[in-house]
Each structure stands twice: as C-alpha cells, then as structure tokens.
Amino acid sequence: MLNYDIILKNISKPGRYIGGEIGQTVKDKSSVHCRWAFCFPDCYEIGMSNLGLRLLYSSLNARDDVWCERCFAPWPDMEQRMRETATPLWALESGDPLSLFDFVAFSLGYELSYTNVLYMLELAGIPLLSCDRGEDDPIVIGGGCCTYNPEPLADFFDLFSIGEGEESLPELSDLYLSMKKDGSYTKEAFLRKASELGGFYVPSFYQVHYHPDGTIAGFEKKYDELPDTVQKRIIRNFDKAHFPSKTYIPYIDTVQDRIMLEVMRGCPRGCRFCQAGMVYRPVREKTPELLNEQAKCLYEATGYEEISLSSLSVSDYTRLSRLTELLLEWTDERRVSLALPSLRADTFTKELMDRISTIRTSTLTFAPEAGTQRLRDVINKNVTEEEILRACQVAFSAGKNQVKLYFMIGHPTETNEDLSGISELSSDVVHSFYQCPDRERGRGGIQVTLSVAAFVPKPFTPFQWEKQDSLEETERKQQYLRSVITDRKVKYNYHDAKVGRIEAVFARGDRKLGRALLEARRRGFRFDAWEEYFSYQAWMDVFRDTEIDPDYYTTRGFGEDEILPWDLIDCGITKAFLKEERHRAYAGLVTPNCMEHCSGCGAAKLGGEETWCNRTLSRCGKTAAPKTN
C-alpha cells in the first residue's frame, strides 16, 4: 500500500490519486482470480468523465472472480514525487502497483495521448516493448476508437480489442481464467486463443512487408489459423447491453460531472470526414422506457442534478420526444435538468426546445462544418443554411442569445469562397437574431462563437485517402478567414494547425512510427494533448532523428489501390463503399442518411434485429448482403 503522507505532499489536486470515491468497486483479493487495471492516458478529470471507461469498469466488476480498477496519468508534479520516492504507478482502488495485475488496459481515444501510454508503462515499471515482456508481466491491451488503426502502437501492445468491449472483455477474462485453471496458460498460447474469439488483434502475429517506396506490400500471418482481417465486435441488441446501476463519483471537479445516459450507438448521417460516424455503425437504439428507468437508477445512486443524453447525434434518436416526455415526469419536480450536447440543425424543433428549457445555459451549439452548400454537399453534411437559421430562430425565441458554430477547414475541394462562406453564415445568424420578433429584450445582444478545426484524414472514412493541407496552407486559410470576419458579434477561435499535423501522422501511420514514439518517450514527451506540453519543433526533431517523414502520412495522400496500414482491421464498412462515397464527394452528390435509404455500406452484416440497417432494409425490401471489397 502507498504511503500517502509522503507521496501526496506538495502536489496539486491530491484528490486525483487517493481513490475511495463513492461508487467505486472494492473486492476481497482472495476471491479474485483475474485483475484488470483500466488506464486512461490523461489526467483524472478527463478520464473520470469517459463513458466507455465507466461501462467497461462496471461490466467486468459485475463478475465475482474479476476485479477491475482505475488508473490515470499522473500530472508532472506527481511524476516528480513518484520518481523521487521510487513509487511505481498504482491503481486507485487497491493501491497496488500496475505490474501486479493480469491485464493493463488502455483507452485509446486520441492520437496525441500515445506518449502518455508509454509514460504510464514506464512509471509502472512495465517494459515498453511487448517483445521485452516476460511471462510474469501483465498483458497490455488497448481499446477505443484509435485501435481502428493500431499500427503506430503495434510494438507496445500485446493485444488490441477492436470494437465494443462489454461482451468481449468478459469473454477474454473467461479464457484467461480457464487456461490458468487447466495449466495450459502461456502468454503465447493465450494470445493465440484470444485471436480466435473475434474482435482481438495480436500485432506480433502479423509481419508487415514494405515496397522500396515505403508503401505496404502485404501482411504475413505467423499462424495459418489467424484471421486475414479482425472484425470488430458490437452489441447487437442495445437494450441488452450491460448497464452500470451505480458509478463512481469524483472527489474533485471533472469535465463531465453528471449522469450520462447513452441513448443510441452509431450515427446514421454519413459525414465523409467523420470516423466515428462510420466505425460505430450500425445504429442501435435503446427503448425510451428502459432509458427512463436507467436514468432513475443512476439518479438514486448519485444524486446528480443533470442528465446528459449521450450519442453521436442525439437529436437523431427516433424516440426522443417520448423519452423526454418520460424524463420530465420526474426530473422537473426534482429540479434535474436535461442536456442534449449534440444537436443537428435540421432536427431541432420548438417542441424539443420547450422540453429542454431547463438547461442552465444560454448557449446552443450546432456544427455546419462548412461555409457553403457546395462544400456541405461534398462532405455529405446534409444540412442547409435555411435549416441552420431556422434552428437559431427557435433558440432565439426561447431566450437564447449565444450560439456556438463548429466548422472545419481543409476539406477536399475547399476554396476561398467556402472560407468566406463561414463568415457570411455567421453574420446571417447575427442578423437572424435581430430579425426574431420573439427574442427576449434587455438581455444584451447576440454572440456567435466560431470554433474552427483543421481537417485530419482518418481511417475508415471516404476521405481516408485524401491529403491534408500543408501546415503553411492551413495557416494561410486560418488567417484568410480572420481577415474576412468583420462582424463584431462574431468571435473566431481556431485550433493549432501544428497539432492537427501531428494528429494526422499518427492517425494514418504505420508500424515505422513505433521508433518515433519510443524516442519521444526517451526524451520525456507526455501530455501532448495539452497546449503547455505540446512542442511541434520537438516532434519534428524526433521525426528527423528517427528518419520519419511526416509529409508521407499527411500531404502525400494515399492511392485508392494502396494497401493501407489499417487494412488488417474490419470495421464493418467495406472499402468499396468508402471509395464510392469519395467519388460522390468529388461529384458534389449527397448520400441519404441510413433511416431514409440503405446505401449498402456493409454494416448490415454485423447483424441484430434492433439495428437501423435491418429496419431500413426491411422497409426497402433489400437483403443485408454488403458490397464486397
């Protein structure tokens, strides 16, 4: 156990490290035969807000013979204390070092957190390279959206969980326990068996061969029985997905300190730049009655005064009206507010506005993503300026006077006219406010805030082959947009283009990037997702010294017939569909959303009677046969 009197002296926010929160799970070690340490490669405040971590923590702890604990990346002041006192990284519930666990699992949700993975392994005293770990070292496993291209991290992980883990991780625990019990366990034998379960990728079992120009020539399997591609796992019936009847409540303020009610998984829209909208298909919904009961359960367990309805596009939940009706029957009298963080302008209505009028904010957020209709058609955003302005009018009539608009620059085919369209649309929103006859008077004027990110091509999207704008071109566009915004009611914020470039390198990278990550750890890189610790020049120095050309992964663009680093992974969406969508983008053609029409993306093969795929296919009279690669 830790000596807290020594380790917690003279550090900020000691509540990050002590555990003991209401709702945590503590078990008798003598009754537990499989131990998991779930590691989130960022600080406590970020990790404690992660819904996936809460779900998997609960699903594993539902078993008597398995104990799952939590661990977060120590802030640099704590790192210094740990090194001074030779204290290894520990799990919050037991205080035991991570090196004593059977599984050390990392949630991989953002490419710039990769250095924190190595940082945490080093602090735990676990060898960074999988080839250097012995039989007594923990099995290091990764999951999350970044595992749809796990190759930059292939040298460091024993195993990757592809897709949704609520069912697959307990299955993996069963396999581990059975092999330990019958005496057949070795790490190699276990990993071979794990690869047969479905949804698990063992990178050391696949060798990558390259052409002289650096492109991939092919993959070679170590064992014949290994799958050619690893298909993701999904929860087919979302109503039957594991639900945590309680959750841990943090001691200190966190980013999302509220009840998070996941109403559906997947997104039907098909935006061509959006990885999440593709890899989380097919769309699956929970019934309103079940969600209402789950919300009550979490309220009784936590006492939180806000419920956030969570999904990629919550206003696309087809039974939202019924759900809000059920929730308001008891939340109003208890003064519990409802939050809808992800709204679409084309599905935002006065009825919805009236039902969420208890939200404690005067700001609503929409994401047009592009400034002109031409470019919105290219990216398949399927929202018009009229719909955006109509949604704003609804908000203004309900007393809102602040609107946040998300845009992205660097989309394929983008021109200066498209950039100017961002300014023009923002000014139209301002004008719409003053034209609204029902707006509240005396509360001040309108404030429109633009948040503008740079396009990063991501795996398993129709734009996965696209080149990213050069750093110079992105910065030129950012300054051009600044120059054309003249309305003082419009506030312009934009993301650092240098961060987006490093993100793109690791988003589309291959195994050769492992040597850059290893060198970055040797030089002390960590918390690259935080502005105060990110150094673009330091990364350029690492790439130079490890003979990595970042342009190869960013501004080069990929060929449609090229073998991609992530071709070992099957997310359910066929490459043929992605290519077709790319061609439609350049033709300026939109593709209907999944509920209107099935476009044959391939996700229907993943099955499940409650998926939108089967509902749409049944209505259209189609079969579930996907297009082939």
Largest sheet: 6 strands, mixed
The gross shape turns out to be globular
Number of beta strands: 19
How much is the average pLDDT?
92
CA radius of gyration is 24 Å
Helix fraction? Answer: 25-40%
Strand line-up of the largest beta sheet: 2-1-3-4-5-6
**What would you call the structural class?**
alpha/beta
Report the span from N to C terminus: 53 Å
- Determine the number of helices (DSSP H or I, runs of at least 4 residues): 20
Poorly predicted runs of 5 or more residues: 623-629
| Beta-strand content estimate | 5-15%
Features:
629 residues, alpha/beta, four-stranded parallel beta sheet, 14% strand, disordered C terminus
Explain this structure.
There is one protein chain. The protein is of the alpha/beta class. It has a domain at 4-231. It is built from 20 helices and 19 strands. The protein has helices spanning 4-7, 44-47, 51-61, 76-85, 114-124, 168-182, 187-194, 275-279, 288-302, 320-331, 350-355, 373-378, 385-397, 416-435, 471-484, 497-507, 513-522, 536-545, 575-586, 612-620, and strands spanning 34-40, 66-72, 103-107, 139-143, 159-161, 200-201, 206-210, 216-221, 230-231, 259-262, 264-265, 284-285, 306-310, 337-339, 363-369, 402-409, 447-454, 490-494, 569-570. The strands form 6 sheets. A 6-stranded mixed beta sheet has the order 2-1-3-4-5-6. It has a 4-stranded parallel beta sheet with strand order 15-16-17-18. A 3-stranded parallel beta sheet has the order 10-13-14, with helices on one face. Residues 623-629 have low confidence and may be disordered.
